[in-house]
Amino acid sequence: MVAPLLTHILETSLYVTELERAEGFYRHVFGFEPIHRDHRMVALRVAAQSVLLLFRRGATEAGSDTPGGHIPPHGGGGQLHLCFAIPKASLAEWETHLAACGVEIESRVSWKLGGVSLYARDPDGHSVELATPGLWTNY
Amino acid sequence: MVAPLLTHILETSLYVTELERAEGFYRHVFGFEPIHRDHRMVALRVAAQSVLLLFRRGATEAGSDTPGGHIPPHGGGGQLHLCFAIPKASLAEWETHLAACGVEIESRVSWKLGGVSLYARDPDGHSVELATPGLWTNY
Fold first, then answer.
1. What is the ipTM of this complex?
2. H or E segment to which residue B100 belongs
3. Residue B119: closest CA among chain A residues belongs to which residue?
4. Percent of chain B predicted with pLDDT > 90
């Protein structure tokens, strides 16, 4: 049974203790702009076609109703991991930019396929990676 | 300070109790193929340029060393949420396919911009959404 078409990861989610603080970090450091906001969350546009969801911890555990149907419950804890793709040509710029934003680069990894990853922490301690092509066989 | 270029969400992560079970689900239902495997994780290719990381719960909380540098610790619990983009033309096919795979559609939401989301659960209870364009202003 072959799965129907699926084009990309549209949304990845983080659960944060203070929405404003988390939003401020991702806007300031990454330039992601808010495209939706309600009592549970802020949605930030990531590049052309993706969205980062910041949820207030605990606010989504009962699900929620919209005019078009019910959003099922979810919710998480811990320090999650996500990774954003950056062009190889932007790596040095990102290092400079993170430093200028006061964001420490916790680690830098060189991958055998030629990619390089920078790891940093957001205000909730989530592990945010920036990776150039050459990390996986398909990127 | 304008952020340097960033192109898309490369990786989103789930923490699962049984790696084999989770991998089997995402391979069977979504057709994602494994591109890396070690004692901590399985990485599955999602469409052209994205990767779903399945981590064994607890296996990443000490970080890990690679020849090219240190991967910082991370780890999470709960039932997380992620969303994959599907073409509008594939929605009915996905409904049929999920049913054929024995995956219950927990909810269906129609969004005001015209998109439709299907919500299901993976074996760990993570909330997996499939969304057609017309959910966000940029998708």
1. 0.96
2. helix B91-100
3. A72
4. 96
